[in-house]
Prior knowledge:
With 244 residues, this protein is an alpha/beta fold.
Amino acid sequence: xxxxxxxxxxxxxxxLGRATAELLLEQGARVTGWDVSGEGLRWLSERENAxxxxxxxxxxxxxADAAAEVRSxxxxxxFLVNSAGVxxxxxxxxxxxxxxxxxxxxxxxxxxxxxxxxxxDLIASRxxxxxxxSTVALKPSVSNAHYAASKAAxxxxxxxxxxxxxxxxxxxxxxxxxxxxxxLFEAAGMDVTVKETFLADRASTIPLGRxxxxxxxxxxxxxxxxxxxxxxHVIPVDGGMSIS
Length: 244
Ligand SMILES: NC(=O)c1ccc[n+]([C@@H]2O[C@H](COP(=O)([O-])OP(=O)(O)OC[C@H]3O[C@@H](n4cnc5c(N)ncnc54)[C@H](O)[C@@H]3O)[C@@H](O)[C@H]2O)c1
């Protein structure tokens, strides 16, 4: 990884975004963490070579202000990790239209707004983007159809943007994690016992016999910063779940 690398990580307040930001700092990058939860970002605000911004990625004005802030502080952006996202669980018969709209607003529109806002910087640096898709985008499952559809949209945005931005030398890939123990499930309204049962059930369907840890996913996100001949791929990191 280049020594003066500047990364923007959305969703850095928790889970995969936090693990990614921690690893980038360890590897010597400068990291700007964006999250709707200012409290979640507290760990990062205390670190050297870090900036934080409380940003709702569905709000274009907030995203533009945060992009201007990183530009003025560090003058460049080489790596964007779009990890901010939410889960929606619910059968077709029960799902609320407002919840579906909010899901797509965050997972699809928010990812678009952030990438769009940082596009001039990424083109200038011939940088790289990693989006967060999901195993459920590749493999249908029951009771999270809309979440799966939002993550399938992220996978296809990844492939389309990779083609669109290749002439500028910007690479766009996605990681499709299997079930990984983060606060994604609590944020979707599951209590801890329900989450543990859910993850244990999922583990029994995974060929490697267990769910993932955030650091395992973060390692795959971060290796894509340097692989200069890889673009347009959605890479499962899922213990074999997507092939079973
Ligand atoms: N954990 C898993 O099993 C899993 C599996 C596949 C894909 N993913 C994807 O990985 C990404 C990260 O999820 P996670 O597991 O780390 O979840 P998490 O809930 O631990 O972290 C998500 C972060 O995104 C932030 N966020 C939510 N809405 C936001 C908004 N509007 N603006 C800015 N920030 C916002 C939250 O505050 C939170 O800090 C998500 O896109 C998720 O869909 C997770």
